[in-house]
């Protein structure tokens, strides 16, 4: 499916270039009005990133999420600094459909495995941000500042016995560039792990990119900047996805 994405700082929609808080662009949009339009076109799921919470878990935008979930009738997945059981429970209790976990995947693997068992695989999305050298898909964490020497394949194999179902995979060299996604990456991992619902993210700049991603076997495409900057409409994106 097509999943529009919004990165939020103090309830405002922004984009960070390659995860850099000092390289930030703000978008002067009425998010609630925009989402009414998206709903009328057939969008079902929204991806929100709490950049305040990612920097400081005590500064999570809970009040905004309460308002958002009260007014908007989407399935919502939320990421950004999810590190504790308390974080996950608070968001799921608000009505968030899925919680997106990133750095904890590496730093606290046993705890993440426990979360999959407690909350169920449909409530947890593992966000794997990779930098690829000679086809080694190395995971980076902490806002892409820290390399882990652990590969995407190793992590997926570790969590498969716990019922892992949803993985959001980003090639960090592509994120925010609008230069096209890493088609070879998504084709390879979709073939290798047929039971995983992959969400592709990073580099999507044209309708052709959406068509190419659908052909790789990924289940969803996360689209941020290209929709915000009107490279194409959400209606056009949906038509491309459904047509393939």
TrEMBL record:
Pathway-wise, it operates in: Amino-acid biosynthesis; L-histidine biosynthesis; L-histidine from 5-phospho-alpha-D-ribose 1-diphosphate: step 4/9
Named from the GO MF annotations, one term is:
1-(5-phosphoribosyl)-5-[(5-phosphoribosylamino)methylideneamino]imidazole-4-carboxamide isomerase activity
Cellular location(s) = Cytoplasm
Listed GO biological process terms: L-histidine biosynthetic process; L-tryptophan biosynthetic process
What Gene3D superfamilies does this protein's entry cite?
A: Aldolase class I
Catalytic activity, reaction form: 1-(5-phospho-beta-D-ribosyl)-5-[(5-phospho-beta-D-ribosylamino)methylideneamino]imidazole-4-carboxamide = 5-[(5-phospho-1-deoxy-D-ribulos-1-ylimino)methylamino]-1-(5-phospho-beta-D-ribosyl)imidazole-4-carboxamide
The UniProt entry, under PANTHER family, shows: 1-(5-PHOSPHORIBOSYL)-5-[(5-PHOSPHORIBOSYLAMINO)METHYLIDENEAMINO] IMIDAZOLE-4-CARBOXAMIDE ISOMERASE
Instruction: State the protein's name.
Output: 1-(5-phosphoribosyl)-5-[(5-phosphoribosylamino)methylideneamino] imidazole-4-carboxamide isomerase
User: What species is this protein from?
Assistant: Buchnera aphidicola
């Amino acid at each position: 499916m097509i999943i529009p994405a919004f990165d939020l700082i103090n309830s405002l929609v922004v984009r960070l270039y390659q995860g850099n808080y000092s390289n930030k662009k703000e978008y002067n949009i009425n998010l609630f009005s925009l989402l009414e339009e998206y709903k009328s076109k057939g969008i079902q799921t929204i991806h929100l990133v709490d950049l305040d919470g990612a920097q400081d878990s005590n500064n999570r935008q809970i009040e905004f999420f309460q308002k958002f979930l009260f007014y908007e009738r989407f399935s919502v997945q939320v990421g950004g600094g999810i590190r504790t059981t308390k974080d996950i429970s608070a968001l799921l209790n608000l009505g968030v459909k899925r919680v997106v976990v990133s750095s904890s995947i590496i730093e606290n693997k046993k705890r993440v495995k426990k979360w999959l068992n407690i909350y169920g695989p449909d409530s947890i999305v593992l966000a794997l941000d990779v930098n690829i050298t000679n086809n080694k898909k190395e995971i980076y964490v902490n806002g892409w500042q820290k390399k882990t020497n652990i590969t995407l394949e190793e992590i997926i194999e570790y969590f498969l016995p716990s019922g892992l179902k949803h993985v959001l995979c980003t090639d960090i060299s592509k994120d925010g560039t609008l230069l096209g996604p890493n088609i070879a990456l998504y084709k390879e991992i979709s073939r290798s792990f047929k039971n995983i619902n992959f969400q592709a993210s990073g580099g999507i700049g044209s309708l052709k990119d959406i068509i190419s991603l659908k052909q790789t076997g990924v289940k969803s495409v996360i689209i941020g900047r290209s929709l915000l900057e009107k490279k194409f409409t959400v209606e056009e994106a949906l038509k491309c996805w459904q047509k393939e």
